[in-house]
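Reproducibility note. Readers wishing to regenerate the assembly model reported in the main text can use the exact inputs given here. Chain order matters: entities are listed in the order in which they were concatenated for prediction.
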Amino acid sequence: MSVQVNAFPADSIYNLDLMLLDKDGNEKEFNKLSGKIQVFAMIYTNCKTICPIIIANMKAIEKLIPENDIKNVNFSLITLDPGKDDVKILNKYFKNKKFNNKIWNLYRTTKEDTLKVALTLGLKYKKEKNNEYTHSNLIILLDDKGVVKIHHQGLDKNYSKMLKTIAEISADLH
Amino acid sequence: MKQISNFFLKSCLIVIFAFMIDGVCAKELPKVEGNTSFAPDVPSPITRNHPAYVVVHFECVELVKELDNGVKYHFWTFDGTSPGKMVRVKQGDTVEFNLHNHKDNKMPHNIDIHAVTGPGGGAAVTNTSPGRTSIFSFKALSPGIFIYHCATPPVPLHIANGMYGLVLVEPKKGLSKVDREYYIVQSEFYTDSTFGKKGMHNFSQEKALMEFPEYVVFNGRVGSLTDSNALIANVGDKVRLFVGNAGPNLISSFHIIGLIFDKVFMEGASLVNIDVQTTLIPAGGATMVEFVARVPGNFIIVDHAIFRAFNKGCVGILKIIGKDNPELFAEKK
Amino acid sequence: MFFQKIIIIFFIFFIVCFDSFAKDKTDMVLIPSGSYIPLFKYGDDVLDDESIDVDSFYIDKYPVTNIDFYSFVKKKPEWDGNNFKLIFADRNYLNHWKNIDSFDEINNYPVVNVSWFAANEYCLYLGSRLPTLDEWEYVASSGKEFRVAKDDPSYLHNLLDWYINSQSRGVISIDKMTDNYWGVFGLHGVVWEWVSDFNSVILLNTDAEGGGLEEVLYCGATATNAVDPADYAAFMRFAFRNSLEADYTINTLGFRCVKNIK
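Running the prediction on these inputs yields the following structure tokens for the assembly.
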């Protein structure tokens, strides 16, 4: 890896050295998500209960970000179920959800690295006997350097703190 | 006529203005430190007449303490005492609750405050590892005297080991003025040894499941309210007792031998019963009783399930000092 | 001929030195595959099978000690008390190594004040890994005499005493630890131990022994109920895991490693 060890703050999640695969099958180093403000969630495509609401809330946040700032923001989803959510399924899910290709991406990684990402973000999850997952509802806001700024409850429709923080970080990026 | 209507108009404007100001001020609550005390003392009455943002700090401490003379037990506590601190807030307050878990503790802890309307009474969001702090806030919606306790699994063990206390939410208009207020919590201890046997006592799960305590005590130990620790009042004092029952299992039949409660705020809530000899305190509940100290003497505080008082330690003393009142009570020789 | 012997000796010496830092199987115990009954049963159906199957694996006889971890830190200085990154461990990391007169005093005590990331990295470095929650609970479900400890009526009682008394006793060195049926030492009443999937413990509404999930906080599939509400020691372990985050370092939390059967 060519990334310098000291490139990120000590509490940045991009200190994790791992490789992602996106919905188009492109490989991407995890730390290449830096440089943009990330609105982040970990879900899985087969989640029928609360995940659709989490995504709806993320889309609502996307709509509320001013045009001036949205170019600094990405929405990233990493699957909790890399065993089942292969690139083909991620691609299909992406199309079904009609995400904006310029702003959203879906990723998968190894089982071990999925756990590491969840752990740095403070997310809990458990695979149940019926192959569904019980998992934290959280939407995480990361700054451009990968430092966690906000843990937002996924069902909470009060986005004011999230939007305010995005605006503040974005102002520094202009 | 013109003067009257002028005056009336001005008064209306002032009233409207006052309401507007109140509306503006309510959005920014003044921040105050929590009003707390250690048993048997009660925090002083709240003097402000508006809600506030109240900041409270508790620290979980695991330590060995005496349950009885020469009898030691592994206590789990809030702030080193069992019961923990009493907190006094006002209906309408927003309370910011900071729960610290001392880094030398072995167990995670949390808190369920019965005055809270919200998941777990706060327990769902205060799971705290040793060395960490959890913070949550709640609005005190209802007045009353409420139990708080740790609710980390196994919950009965956390309660059985001493993690409980009382939160008082004063009604909006406050409580009537009294001369003495005291804080008492009744609870049981289940140990693998026998009552009074000196040495280390360990928690007995078998006895706890059978609801067969070795100790039933006030304020966490035998003797907490007797001898030099007896509660004091003067003849003529209006006395108010906040009495909780942490359980974990038993219901209390709270009685003070030799006096009648003028008022009992049943179950620690707003409905008042009068002239009550013995009142029930559910496990995980509380009561508030008021009476005037009319006759001097030693008045024994008991759980009237009387073997508990006599053989398990559930006894305290209220010492009323002052002039005899032979009209009320006199020995005839 | 002599020269060839020297080369062979050097070669053997080199292999021994290189391999001596790999996890030595003599420090580990083979746990055969089997099943155990976990504390929480996941499933609404009364007929759902409670037991969980576990494949065979090797497990460390003892928790990782201070001297073990010291050797690792010397080889991987990015994990020492000065260079570590805050995303991987909090400021209390290896705090107990500071201000001690002699490291020798704590050599054989379980290393504590290590985060999940540090523990995980240690195991990976040795070609092993952290145990899963099921693996750890499976091994720990055996007492001394009984393969299934709960078959021994006094087991739960002794276990609870052990857990509670360990608070005043403090952490003990590996020579004072006792073993269980498998010859694994110090599983109970010494230090809590990291497992790889500690973040799979999601406990709420615990005033009773089970309860539903909070939809506000978790997206979930099933309710959880405790199989044996009298197993207070297990509750304590689960409650502890439930309170953790991966960067936490706690002075009663250590770990041990496991290794797959090749």
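We highlight two features of this model. Chains B and A do not touch (no CB pair under 8 Å). The mean pLDDT of chain B is 94.
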